[in-house]
Write a structure and sequence with these properties.
With 617 residues, the protein is of the alpha/beta class. The strands form four sheets. It has a six-stranded parallel sheet, sandwiched between helices. Strands 11-10-9-12-13-14 form a six-stranded parallel sheet, sandwiched between helices. A six-stranded parallel sheet has the order 16-15-17-18-20-19, sandwiched between helices. The longest helix has 17 residues. The two termini are 37 Å apart. It catalyses: 2 pyruvate + H(+) = (2S)-2-acetolactate + CO2.
């Protein structure tokens, strides 16, 4: 398997391949220095909105021939677009906002990027340095606000510091465990005259990520893998971030061990591969969830034992020893003690593991997983991911998403919002390649899909980019459709419209006696949420909304029209397209592990718990 072009290794930025710039010393404003610094680090796209404190930077930005600025409609859209750009390209995403409310509108996407380890640099304007701390107009302590949700942040009051800070910000964001970095620049620093010097020497003595794993730990991990009877390769998003998917496949096929890929790792290992069991977790496949529960070895690569994967932690994988490899030593042992901890870059770890496992094979030590696979294959056959057809000729949301995946294909980039449609997308789209699945995994941010798809399409204009969104999520950030229409970013948006906040409604159905408190989106007070909306009641009408935003609006309500409408959308490439899929409102996401319960309590369907009928059940 060759590495997909959309998934370069961590820190692989355009600047890494550009010729080293000559030592330049020029006199210019701090604002000009900022734009020159962005050009020097290889930033080619910035998503943002101007305002008073950041305005000095927008004047020289107008003259840049290397940095494209995309004027968004809300700063949250700028942040998620930077994240989508970074996830789709592997480069650092950049967003820009003014002080006060402009900066605070970036907090949600910064937190989102932090949770999902996405490299972005957020540049904000700040009030003048003398006014800082005086409650000046549009002042907010954005460094203090974002300290817990950034990998690092800077407050710049000296214009001479701008080149160094920008170079460091991009380096920190892209290396080690990726993450967001905030650069807050006082307005007077942008306006003042300074001497610009590039290149700068980056000296960060306290920041030295360990990338090369310890050889002894690698040998010990290889021995555990070949002596295990029921191993599982538990693969997280760190493998994707490191560009290590080719090495993962080599190790998996060399050992013959089963593979599960978390929500953040979909596409790191082909869904169609016979060794792939699916996604683990609250709405994971029965084989994936159960394999972790019955395993005697969790071979954990770039994953963090998230609560959505483990369920009730003290009952998770009770028979398993743990090998845990991660670039971030803080993750190892945080939730589950590791028998063999390995700190290092996933690509380096996997490359060394391949050599160590082959050495074990050459010495006559090879794992026998025959009995294990017999059981796994039985679970795969007995408990496949599926869904009940919608009643009365209505559209099933699972069917809609499945057909989009089949017709659009595995080369497209899919961005999902958060909720039922996100889980159905993870289940029914076949992800074969890295860099093709974008979602808000850790923070679970509604409104992520449309701006993230916009950012992905801006970074990879040659790719087909689809946002799979719910009608609730869509109403949070759909204003960025106007941004897409005006900036030649022709994304496709599939709105899975069930008239409600679907995942919350599912929980109300299962755990709150069908009391649908404030989850109905298509009706006002007094509607019980059980009856579908009256014929013709559509507030808002997404087709008209799309057309008002300069997009093509389509609607599909019948299964027999499904393929034709998807194909119609695929043929339109000069404007964004929004498809309003009116789907069955009572569809639920299965399998499911209820929050706070053990993964042993997984339900295949409502009221149906798998019976594995063995001594480990």
């Amino acid at each position: 398997m060759t590495e997909h072009a959309a998934s370069p290794r961590r820190g692989d930025t355009p600047a890494a391949h550009a010729p080293a710039p000559q030592h330049v010393v020029e006199t210019m404003t701090g604002a000009q220095s900022l734009i020159r610094s962005l050009e020097a680090v290889g930033a080619d796209t910035v998503f943002g909105i101007p305002g008073g404190a950041i305005l000095p930077a927008y004047d020289p930005l107008m003259d840049s021939t290397k940095v494209r600025h995309i004027l968004v409609r809300h700063e949250q859209g700028a942040g998620h677009a930077a994240t989508g750009y970074a996830q789709a390209t592997g480069r650092v995403g950049v967003c820009m906002a003014t002080s006060g409310p402009g900066a605070t509108n970036l907090v949600t996407p910064i937190a989102d990027a932090y949770m999902d380890s996405v490299p972005i640099v957020a540049i904000t304007g700040q009030v003048t340095s003398k006014a800082i701390g005086t409650d000046a107009f549009q002042e907010a302590d954005i460094c203090g606000i974002t300290m817990p949700i950034t990998k690092h942040n800077y407050l710049v009051t000296d214009p001479a510091e701008i080149p160094r800070v920008i170079a460091e910000a991009f380096h920190i964001a892209a290396t080690g465990r990726p993450g967001p970095v905030l650069v807050d620049i006082a307005k007077d620093a942008l306006q003042a005259t300074t001497t610009f010097r590039w290149p700068v020497e980056t000296s960060l003595p306290g920041y030295r990520p360990v990338t090369k794993p310890h050889a002894k730990q690698i040998r010990e991990a290889a021995k555990m893998l070949v002596t295990a009877k029921r191993p599982v390769l538990y693969v997280g998003g760190g493998v994707m971030k490191a560009g290590a998917t080719a090495e993962l496949r080599i190790l998996a096929e060399l050992t013959g061990a089963p593979v599960v890929t978390t929500l953040m790792a979909l596409g790191a290992f082909p869904d169609s591969h016979p060794q792939h069991l699916g996604m683990p977790g609250m709405h994971g496949s029965v084989p994936a969830v159960t394999a972790l529960q019955k395993a005697d070895l969790l071979f954990t690569l770039g994953a963090r034992f998230d609560d959505r994967v483990t369920g009730k932690l003290d009952s998770f994988a009770p028979y398993a020893k743990v090998v845990h490899a991660d670039i971030d030593p803080a993750e190892i042992g945080k939730n589950r003690p590791a028998d063999v901890p390995i700190v290092g870059d996933a690509r380096e770890v996997l490359a060394d593991l391949i050599v160590a496992v082959q050495a074990e094979f050459d010495a006559g030590h090879k794992g026998d997983y025959g009995d294990w696979w017999e059981r796994l294959d039985e679970w795969k056959t007995t408990y496949p991911v599926g869904y009940e057809p919608a009643p009365g000729g209505q559209l099933s949301p699972q069917q809609v998403i499945e057909r989009i995946g089949r017709l659009v294909g595995p080369d497209a980039v899919y961005a999902a919002g958060v909720g039922q449609h996100q889980m159905w997308s993870s289940q029914f789209i076949r992800f074969e390649k890295p860099g093709t699945w974008l979602n808000s995994g850790g923070a679970g941010t509604m409104g992520y899909a449309v701006p993230a798809a916009m950012g992905a399409k801006a970074g990879r204009p040659e790719a087909a980019v689809w946002a799979i969104d719910g009608d609730g999520c869509f109403q949070m950030t759909n204003q960025e459709l106007a941004t897409c229409a005006l900036n030649d970013i022709p994304i496709k948006v599939a709105v899975i419209n069930n008239g409600s906040l679907g995942m919350v409604r599912q929980w109300q159905t299962l755990f709150y006696n069908q009391r649908y408190s404030n989850t109905v989106l298509h009706a006002g007070p007094g509607h019980d949420g059980i009856e579908p909306p009256a014929q013709g009641t559509r507030i808002p009408d997404f087709v008209l909304l799309a057309e008002a935003m300069g997009c093509v609006g389509l609607r599909c309500e019948r299964p027999e029209d499904l393929d034709a409408v998807i194909k119609q959308a695929m043929e339109i490439n000069d404007r964004p397209v929004v498809i309003d899929f009116i789907v069955h409102q009572d569809a639920m996401v299965w399998p499911m592990v209820a929050a706070g319960t053990s993964n042993d309590e997984i339900q295949f369907a409502r009221g149906v718990r798998p019976d594995f009928g063995d001594d480990l059940d």
